[in-house]
Amino acid sequence: MTPTRTDPETGPTAFPEVDDAVERARTAFVPDLGLAARLDRLHRLEDLIRENRGVLEEALAADLGKPAHEAWLTELGFTLEEVVGIRKELRGWMRPRRVPVPLSLAPARARIEAQPLGTVLIMAPWNYPVQLVLSPLAGALAAGNTVVVKPSEVSANVSAVLAGLLGRYLGDCVSVVEGGVPETTRLLEHRFDHVFYTGNGSVARVVMAAAARHLTPVTLELGGKSPAWVDDSTDLRTAARRIVWGKFVNAGQTCVAPDHVLGPPGVLADVEPELVRALAEHYGADARHSDSYGRIVSERHLARLTRLLDQVPAADVVCGGSADPAECYLEPTVVRSAPDGPLMAEEIFGPVLPLVAVPSAEDAVELIAAGDKPLALYVFSEHRAVKDLFRRRTSSGGLSFNAPLLQLSSPHLPFGGVGDSGTGAYHGKHSFTTFSHARAVLDKPLGPDTLRVVYPPYRGLRSRLAAAAVGLRRPGRRTRHAVSKI
Ligand code: NAD
């Protein structure tokens, strides 16, 4: 029988291990954790990645058929760079920042101090299951928090490996909860000081509703349809290579992958053979035998994609389309689609690239503006006016000209969505900010007591001085008269 226990805050539970994990993280929280202790935690996180590259790569290969090179580039090496960057800058970020005080408050000193939030929850999805746990974790630890990590149950091998490693390297400040919906539901009943969730929008609503019960702030890193615009001013061969790389890395299961390509009909006709050529360059004649091409995470996820593809007429398939459920393999596929075709209803999140013809850049902008705000928008054009048009008239988490995915690899750029593609951002200093509270600290000497001008009774010279001090003019007679007439 499952042991049960009653948590004073959340009631009876069938998941004592979930409650224990939260309790451990809460108890371990130290409100004024200093620089040395935080650096030590970041060093241990670095060690975890460096010393366990092999086992992490194996788990990624088992879950997603992720090639080792890709695993390093997009998960381990990427995250290591993020942790090292944060570690090197942390001292400066932690320093209280003096800010000026207005004359009306003088004499006084004011500063902003970054404080840890407390115990935070990080929930990760399966597509980059190492990076999307460890990269926000670096920010949360740098900011001095303790953390409960919930890896995705879909990438079960990585989840198990991370649970073991995080326990070994960072067990004093990080607890891991493994499991699916029941465990996560229980986890979300607890009060956290911040919830950082990466995944799809439907679950984000569940997470946000659960957090709202405790007034817990959330960061939501979501997805959606990220378009790429291509026109005749660009070098189509290079553009096609880059689009193919950005789309088919991790077998299309990347939140910022170009979801579809928009362009004038003539340009798309010219792009088609370039995409086919780039696919052959990257993955050979048969991607199934390429050691550079990944797999779909599960048969269930593959079935969703093949159901989508079944709705595409054979005449609209430019290349690809074959699948093998036994291997969770889906061939890199390029199709033609109408703007309201079956592939345009939801985020594709797989190796299927629709080419959607629109008459002009203005039409593309209108189409984008009519939908949910994308996580990423890519523009392949040399026309300054076209670049400006997309920059001024669309909104998206990120905007990148001529290169997909790269916007998220600069630690100086915030990575996050807007509207349906997410709330909040992280990476580099933005991670530190996300997981810190910016506390306003004012220090005003007791003498001389300049505050006397604001004390009641509100009349006479004092009242005039107080009004002048905050930049307001006392209403004159005429104004008073005018007001009383209204
Ligand atoms: P997923 O199924 O692994 O779910 C994410 C997390 O939510 C997991 O930890 C899971 O256990 C939990 N979860 C699932 N169902 C739940 C429920 N009913 N109640 C509570 N918790 C639940 O991953 P996913 O959502 O399929 O991930 C893919 C989506 O994530 C895509 O939309 C993609 O675009 C998006 N994504 C966004 C980013 C980003 O950084 N913005 C990165 C990767 C993926």
- Work out the strand percent: 15-25%
Strands side by side in the biggest sheet: 12-15-16-11-10-17-18
Q: Tell me the overall shape.
A: globular
Uncertain segments are 474-486
Mean pLDDT: 94
Number of helices: 16
Q: Ends: how far apart?
A: 74 Å
Q: What does this 3D model show about the protein?
A:
This protein is 42% helix and 17% strand. It is α/β, with parallel strands linked by helices and 486 residues long. The chain has 3 domains: 4-222 and 428-438, Aldehyde Dehydrogenase, Chain A, domain 1 (3-Layer(aba) Sandwich), CATH 3.40.605.10; 227-412, 3-Layer(aba) Sandwich (Aldehyde Dehydrogenase, Chain A, domain 2); 447-486, no CATH class. The strands form 5 sheets. The protein has a 7-stranded mixed sheet, sandwiched between helices. Helix 2 (35-51) packs antiparallel against helix 4. The longest helix has 27 residues, at 68-94. The termini are far apart. It binds nicotinamide-adenine-dinucleotide. Nicotinamide-adenine-dinucleotide binds at residues 123-127, 132, 150, 152-154, 180-181, 184-185, 198-200, 203, 206, 221-223, 255, 347, 349, 375, 417, 422.
In short:
By secondary structure, this protein is of the alpha/beta class. The protein has helices at 16-28, 35-51, 53-64, 68-94, 131-142, 156-170, 181-189, 201-212, 236-248, 265-283, 299-310, 361-370, 384-393, 429-434, 460-469, 477-485; strands at residues 5-7, 11-13, 97-99, 109-116, 119-123, 146-150, 174-176, 194-198, 218-221, 227-230, 260-263, 317-319, 323-324, 329-330, 333-337, 352-357, 376-380, 398-401, 422-423, 436-443.
